[in-house]
Design brief:
51% of the residues lie in helices and 11% in strands. The chain has 161 residues and is mostly helical. The strands form 2 sheets. Strands 1-2 form a two-stranded parallel ribbon. A two-stranded parallel ribbon has the order 3-4. Helix 1 packs across helix 7 and helix 3 runs parallel beside helix 4. The longest helix has 20 residues. It is globular and about 40 Å long.
């Protein structure tokens, strides 16, 4: 979890590979209206995210029921969003990819083909409620090598069991 362009999808894929899990790309489940808004630089509201978060929670719960190892890439910027996902899967852990705004701007400038407008970077940081005092959160420097982040996440998850 984290702001746009912090590496959520890339890191989630690396974690899923390491653990033999299933990557669930949260961006694929946004409504067409939400994608249109983000493409146009319009920040999503809590109401815009409600059905999306509900669907992601259902996907996670279903995967756990099937004894899969789901790894979701999702911004989960507010505590209430994370709590919504925790309600669906109470043992859910979060890997918080911490990154500064300058690095996000550099990454977003290089990214091609993504619907998220770089105009939304400010709103992403304004919306972010840092999860560092929440249960079951691993805080990681998003500028570390992807494989290192995957290793840290796997070690952290195994240590909590």
């Amino acid at each position: 979890m984290g702001v746009t362009a912090c590496g959520k999808s890339t890191v989630a894929q690396a974690i899923a590979r390491r653990i033999g899990g299933r990557h669930i790309e949260g961006d694929l489940f946004h409504s067409a209206e939400n994608i249109r808004k983000m493409r146009e630089g319009i920040a999503l509201t809590d109401a815009d995210r409600t059905l999306w978060l509900h669907l992601l929670g259902e996907l996670l719960a279903d995967a756990v029921t099937k004894n899969e190892k789901p790894v979701l890439s999702c911004s989960a910027l507010r505590r209430s969003y994370r709590d919504h996902l925790r309600a669906a899967v109470p043992a859910l852990g979060f890997v918080f990819l911490e990154i500064d705004e300058a690095e996000v701007r550099r990454r977003a400038a290089r990214r091609r083909g993504h619907f998220m407008s770089s105009k939304l970077i400010d709103s992403q940081f304004a919306t972010l409620e840092s999860p560092v005092d929440e249960p079951c959160v691993l805080r990681v420097d998003a500028t570390l090598p992807v494989e290192r982040i995957g290793q840290l996440a796997q070690e952290w998850w195994l240590a909590r069991r």
